[in-house]
Amino acid sequence: MTEEPDFETGDHHIAELHIDDASLPVTSVEMQHERRVAIFDLIEDNQFKPLESSSGPYMVHLALDESRRLHFDVNTTLGVPRAQFSVSMVPFRRIVKDYFLICESYHNAIRTATSAQIEAIDMGRRGLHNEGSRLLTDSLRNQAEISFNTSRRLFTLICSLHRRPS
């Protein structure tokens, strides 16, 4: 397991997060709620520090271009620019696809499966979520330090940006 980054001060965190409207897919009410919860959870508890930044807290603007790159525009909450970087979403395609499939299996299993079967599916879901989180942490290693819990919350948000109504 990788070691958590050491955040010297308590101000290295995301205080505000905005998503470019053009990046948002057409969604159902449930998916809009899922996205709001992901953002709320991220803001509530995160550790995030662009490598060259001396202080935060941060206002982060995310934009997804044609599902290929996730762009981060990072400023302090006072509007001082801190960083701009992007991450390729191509390596995430398989994990996101598998994650959606296992989530669908989980929701279907709730109706008919035994508790042991549901637990096994949920363990697989958590494993994929952790895999996506580690990939995100690794993808950001040259741009920002993030805690594992922050990476998990960002991965949830990435999934919500790729989700299309069924």
Textual characterization of the structure:
This is UPF0262 protein. It is a single chain. By secondary structure, the chain is α+β, with helices and mostly antiparallel strands. It has one domain. It contains four helices and six strands, in the order βαββββααβα. A hairpin with a 3-residue loop joins strand 3 and strand 4. Helix 2 runs antiparallel to helix 3 and helix 3 crosses helix 4. It is globular.
N-to-C span: 36 Å
Secondary-structure element pattern, one letter each: EHEEEEHHEH
Strand order of the largest sheet: 1-3-4-5
Q: Extract low-pLDDT stretches.
A: none
Report strand %: 15-25%
Mean pLDDT: 87
Summarize this entry quickly.
With 166 residues, the protein is α+β, with helices and mostly antiparallel strands.
From the structure above, extract its key features:
166 residues; alpha+beta; two-stranded antiparallel sheet; 6 strands
Q: Layout of SSEs?
A:
Blueprint: E1 14-19, H1 29-44, E2 48-50, E3 58-65, E4 69-76, E5 81-88, H2 93-112, H3 115-140, E6 144-146, H4 148-162
Parallel strand pairs: 1-3
Antiparallel strand pairs: 2-6, 3-4, 4-5
